[in-house]
């Protein structure tokens, strides 16, 4: 790589860009003075390259910024919302059968938000709503395999041997599957509560796995999606991601550059 390539990899070197410390301050990273100190300390990367010159100019619409290896969103028009999807709502923006859908929630925002992945109507829990098409495309892509954790209430008293079967692997009609983690939380009155973590995005996979081992699901909640956790967000409630969560999810989405970017048009259903 020659000097010209190095300059392009680390952002714009001409006068058309915006000074790096100004961009950082506008993004809420730190004041301009503090941003200059971060740059001088080698803690700032532009397009994966460490930049130590505070006078470096970058294009916020194109260049990717990270501080301490945590991605920073420079496009202030992007919105990222966590929803605790309630039971009975389909993960669609226009359900053709007239069932309650996500418009109940997305219509509360000026921006056109769409869901990252899906939860079936009978499953509640964490769903991301955003207008960031690239992030949504990457995180929902089958090859990416974001870790997701569910808590399921199932019929019957589950044994440790059955829990082990979930992680050892099962043969379903669409191929073998194994949970990355599984642990029994409690058993009571003929029901069991189990926590399952897996990266598969196959349709209704948790329900099908539990049915296969003889414990059909009564209630299913997705508690986490990648680094995001539902916490005490009540069913039907929403909140915007905080700065730390946004940095984590952006960093995750940028960690696999092999996935083809989403089309420039807004994704449909």
From TrEMBL:
Reactions performed catalytically: a uridine in RNA = a pseudouridine in RNA
Keyword Isomerase attributed: yes
Pfam family, one: S4
Enzyme nomenclature, EC number: 5.4.99.-
Single GO MF annotation: rRNA pseudouridine synthase activity
InterPro entries on file: PsdUridine_s_RsuA/RluB/E/F_cat, PsdUridine_synth_cat_dom_sf, PsdUridine_synth_RsuA/RluA, PsdUridine_synth_RsuA/RluB/E/F, PsdUridine_synth_RsuA/RluB_CS, RsuA_PseudoU_synthase, S4_RNA-bd, S4_RNA-bd_sf
Gene Ontology BP term (one): enzyme-directed rRNA pseudouridine synthesis
Keywords: Isomerase, RNA-binding
Domain RNA-binding S4: 18-76
Keyword Lipid metabolism: no
Record-stated family: Belongs to the pseudouridine synthase RsuA family.
NCBIfam families recorded: pseudouridine synthase (TIGR00093)
PANTHER family: PSEUDOURIDINE SYNTHASE FAMILY PROTEIN-RELATED, RNA-BINDING S4 DOMAIN-CONTAINING PROTEIN
Protein name per its UniProtKB record: Pseudouridine synthase
Native source species: Agreia pratensis
